[in-house]
Amino acid sequence: MSLGAPQPLKATVNCDMGEGFSLYKMGDDESLMKTIHLANIACGFHASDFAVMNKTVDLAKDNSVLVGAHPSLPDLQGFGRREMAIEPDELKSCFLYQVGALTGFLRMNGMRLNHIKPHGAIYGQTARSIDLANAVVSVCKVFGDGWLGTTVSPSGNGVSSDGSGKHSSGVAFMGLAGTAHQTAAKAQDVPFIAEWFADLDYNDQGQLQITKVHKPVTIKEVQDKTRTLLTKHQITTTSGNLLPIGEGVTEVSICCHSDTPVSGLMLPLRLFLPVLLNHVIIALQGAVEIAQAVKAVVDEINQAAGYTQ
Q: This protein's superkingdom (predicted)?
């Protein structure tokens, strides 16, 4: 480490999982689950159903992956990636309904709910609105202490939302540092997991660009951005500028989506073409390669800094 360089961020890799529906499959969950540390499992409002949820929880358990709920606006047609006008009390009920469903499958498998991470458009809406953020963060407390027991942060320890390093228990909230997500978590004393997206863009104001269909990325750009984030604590914007990730952040969980395609990567043709087989649509577009590339950088930097998971 060069003189004056900051201590690297400790990191994990997370992925939004279980986003198929009925006979339709989204992404290669089986391969992704072998790469990640945390799985954000869809709860039925943007994708998934009771059978998919159960199967995805089983898969996480088999791979010793921590499970978080990934609730959405009620928008199956738009995959939860379209904004919706909704009141805070409505949104809280919407999230309670979905998280409760997933938690039933977790309890059946002897697993704990680790965190809650909003999906798609409502992720951005709650990052901007403190009223909406307070509503969804309060759901963490419903499923926290006294119900499922102590949960863990990306590194396996409950960490306070103010970055002080003090330990706390309860279901964590995963979101964007320096936004209403972190403010609401701190105000409600809910553990906060700072998240950064390896396969999405940030504008020059540091705002995440949430898209309905993700554009292709290269493995090199993903790894370069990941390395910059972890070693310099800086987010790379679309214009190449660097912005700080947020005050007090010492740990981060890096998201890799299961539906982001890879450009500039030579894969067998079958991985790029949706294949109709026994009424199952399979679209494998290199998301596993993105997650593996990010995990390689995370492992390298964590090991060099002496961090353990």
A: Eukaryota
- Whether 222 and 287 have beta carbons less than 8 Å apart is answered as no
C-alpha–C-alpha distance, residues 56 and 51, integer Å:
9
Cβ atoms of 74 and 40 closer than 8 Å:
no
pTM: 0.86
Compute the distance between CA of residue 307 and CA of residue 24 in angstroms, rounded to an integer: 39
Tokens read off for 215: 């554009």
> How many helices (H) does the chain have, and how many strands (E)?
8, 11
Q: Which residues pair with 159 in a beta bridge?
A: 167
Alpha-carbon distance 255 to 65, whole Å?
Answer: 14
Q: Strand 280-282 to strand 275-277: parallel, antiparallel, or no bridges (unpaired)?
A: antiparallel
pLDDT, tens digit, for every residue of 261-305?
777 554 454 444 444 443 333 334 578 999 999 999 999 999 999
Task: Give the residue among 189, 137, 139 at the shortest CA–CA distance from 162.
Answer: 189
- Which segments of 155-254 does DSSP mark as H helices, in order? 180-187, 219-232
